[in-house]
Design goal:
The chain is of the alpha/beta class and 423 residues long. It is built from 16 helices and 15 strands. The termini are close together. Bound molecules: D-serine (DSN). The site of D-serine has 4 residues, from loops.
Length: 423
């Protein structure tokens, strides 16, 4: 796109400084190998839907039951999103209004627990999420969070520990799912434990929603009372969230989202979620989901062959968690060096990490974004080689080597245009 034809002409005219930043971000997303497992590229259609005049409406309430007039179109937009979510995931009820994953999870607590109640989830340093009852989060301060983890020897969830804890503590709510779990979540096992202990089971599938929709990960629907998900990770939609549940919980969930926690829904986001759900129901999305997993497995194999230590020894999904202790490079140093090499990752704690969360031992990577650009298993040896060289360069402080990788990455990525980008 030329300077005479800016991508966002009105924005460029009104606020050239901001337009230049958006442009720079677009270029960065085009040139780099984005390996953060919770990020993706949305389609041009999703981008367009999220930038519409739906932005201009207030719509407190739900379709047919609003507190503002003028909802003729908004009601239909939200109903489309709800129906598409119900059909794609095979659920009784869907609420598409949560602003993001953390508010969605807060709404679950509001629906099923009282302040001071015991709640249970996976500990953050073990791969859980802040909102699963971790101490620094409101969910760990307003509730009594009890936390389970993974075994130290194999990085897998210890279901004996989960059962024992649930039976002893009798939590109101059990969360399963997380942000750094490279293995298939056994929803059936969690369902049994929740039933035995009398808890509401919440499956937080934010990371794997797209894999579930595409048939590349088992669905929690038969086992979970509530399913919480963001819409912008493997699902490849806008930044938003959904809560899905059995009919018996529909009222409680809706009441908790609005008026319990939120005000007006972000209608432009609801529209973009509807578009993403339509895309996720296409046969091509099944291929996408399968490729995300195939790429992650191939990348894990290539990294193992290069001597990397992977938590749990590999992956079943879109995500790989590397413990860089044997490479003698802290996760943060490696992540920052890889960023300079055009490879975008995030530093992450590993289970039983002796280092602090702001300076941990690990790096978390994933394949949703590179798969959206069309990279396949045939590219994963190259990706592993760049990571290996990048980590070695980080250890030596070799900026020249990082610059060389950056040029190679940009050259490959130029051949694989990203959805939604024009550069
Ligand atoms: N921040 C998200 C992630 O990166 O996994 C979780 O909320």
């Amino acid at each position: 796109m030329t300077a005479e034809q800016p991508r966002h002409p009105a924005l460029a005219a009104t606020d050239p400084e901001l337009a230049a930043l958006v442009r720079a971000e677009e270029q960065l997303q085009a040139d780099t190998l984005r390996l953060i497992p919770s990020e993706n590229y949305v389609s041009q259609a999703v981008l367009e839907a999220s930038g519409t005049v739906l932005q201009n409406k207030y719509s407190e309430g739900y379709p047919g039951r609003r507190y503002y007039e003028g909802q003729q179109n908004i009601d239909l937009v939200e109903t489309l999103a709800i129906e598409r979510a119900r059909s794609l995931f095979g659920v009784d009820h869907a609420n598409v209004q949560p602003y993001s994953g953390s508010p969605a999870n807060l709404a679950v607590y509001l629906a099923f627990a009282e302040p001071g109640d015991t709640v249970m989830g996976m500990a953050l340093p073990m791969g859980g999420h802040l909102t699963h009852g971790w101490g620094v989060s409101a969910t760990g301060r307003w509730f009594r969070g009890v936390q389970y983890g993974v075994r130290q020897d194999d990085g897998r969830i210890d279901f004996d520990q989960v059962r024992e804890l649930a039976m002893k503590e009798r939590p109101k709510v059990i969360f399963c799912g997380g942000t750094a779990l490279p293995r298939t979540i056994d929803f059936a096992a969690f369902g049994e434990i929740a039933q035995e202990s009398g808890a509401v089971l919440v499956a937080d599938v934010a990371h794997i929603a797209g894999l579930i929709a595409g048939g590349a990960h088992p669905s929690p629907v038969p086992y979970a009372d509530v399913i919480s998900t963001t819409t912008h990770k493997t699902l490849r939609g806008p930044r938003g969230a959904m809560l899905m549940c059995r009919e018996e919980h529909a009222k409680a969930v809706d009441k908790a989202v609005f008026p319990g926690l939120q005000g007006g829904p972000h209608n432009q986001t609801t529209a973009a979620i509807a578009v993403a759900l339509k895309e996720a129901a296409l046969p091509s999305f099944r291929t996408y989901a399968e490729s995300v997993v195939a790429n992650a497995k191939a990348l894990a194999e290539a990294l193992l062959a290069r001597g990397f230590d992977l938590v749990s020894g590999g992956t079943d999904n879109h995500l790989i968690l590397m413990d860089l202790t044997p490479k003698e490079v802290p996760g943060k140093v490696a992540a920052k060096a890889l960023d300079r090499a055009g490879i975008v990752v995030n530093y992450n704690t590993v289970p039983y990490d002796p280092r602090k969360p702001f300076d941990p031992s690990g790096v978390r990577i994933g394949t949703p974004s590179l798969t959206s650009r069309g990279l396949g298993v045939e590219h994963m040896a190259q990706v592993a080689e760049w990571i290996d060289r990048g980590v070695a360069a980080a250890a030596k402080g070799d900026e020249e080597a990082l610059a060389a990788i950056r040029a190679e990455v940009a050259e490959l990525m130029a051949a694989y245009p990203a959805p939604g980008l024009t550069v």
